[in-house]
Every structure is written in structure tokens, then in C-alpha cells.
Amino acid sequence: MRKRKPARFSAAKAVRANARERVGQPKAARVIDEKKPKTGRKAKHKEKLEDLVEGE
Predict the structure, then answer these.
(1) Three-class SS state of 4
(2) For 27-35, which contacts have Cβ atoms below 8 Å and span 24 or more sequence positions?
(3) What pTM was computed for the model?
(4) Dihedral through CA 12, CA 16, CA 22, CA 24, nearest 10?
């Protein structure tokens, strides 16, 4: 069986690993609340004044 080739050194990964050792894992960026139901997509643009007047 052949030996595995060692992974290429990445400075960014090394810095992150070092930071995790010293400080710990970073907190999640955003907590998703799954309790509230998902509604549809919101309107992309505001309604025009003319459309609001016609609707009344």
C-alpha cells in the first residue's frame, strides 16, 4: 500500500487552528428559529402610489 502524500501547507488554516486552540470555537453567525412558520417571499419593490389609489 502506498503512503499518502502530505497535505499542502495553508497559512490561513494554520492561523485559524491556532486561534481555535487559544480562544475556542467562534459563535454561530446567526441562529435560525425554526418555530416560526416560513411565509412566502416579500415584495421586491414598494407598491406605486397610483396602484394604491386605484385599489381603494
Answers:
(1) coil
(2) none
(3) 0.39
(4) 170
